[in-house]
Amino acid sequence: xSMGVYIEPLARAVNALSxxxxxxxxxxxxxxxxxxxxxxxxxxxxxxxxxxxxEEIHYCSVCGNFxxxxxxxxxxxxxxxxxxxxxxxxxxxxxxxxxxxxxxxVYHVLHGxxxxxxxxxxxxxxxxxLLARLDGVREVIIATNPDVEGDATAMYIARLIKPLGIxxxxxxxxxxxxxxxxxxxxxxxxxxxxxxxxx
Length: 199
Description:
By secondary structure, this protein is α/β, with parallel strands linked by helices. The model has no long low-confidence stretch (mean pLDDT 90). A four-stranded parallel beta sheet has the order 4-3-5-6. It is 41% helix and 13% strand.
């Protein structure tokens, strides 16, 4: 999209907005037009909210989740079962897990997965911090994505933790509820078959 036809402030806004993930040139232009049409107080509120989020949100000193202070709400909750740790890739995964309202343990956020192709090794993600939290832990649930990097990370962590006598499990992967077998890829179908259970 040529910026030559836009006045400079609009071109700058479109350029900045198009750097956001999932926002292409047309979406950035639509957002820029919307912002220009907004009431000045609403624009200030938007700017202040973005600035506050950037300045006030940090990583939990215990698990690595998003938090406003030193410790996230999950780690601060004394009702959580600290003997079960669910390992996830990033804070968005914590939010997804919490939406199911079914997990009463705590989390550990790796902030990435092992990916030799991208130059990310075990020392580049929060595995050392996980190992330091294992005192009194009876189970580590690995909930990384079911892709090459997620599987490699899960295997690496399992090899480190299993010899310590701690149960290591991996979340099940398979056919989604309402899915049609004819549209399911072979890897997903194979995992679903391997993870079958008695009825």
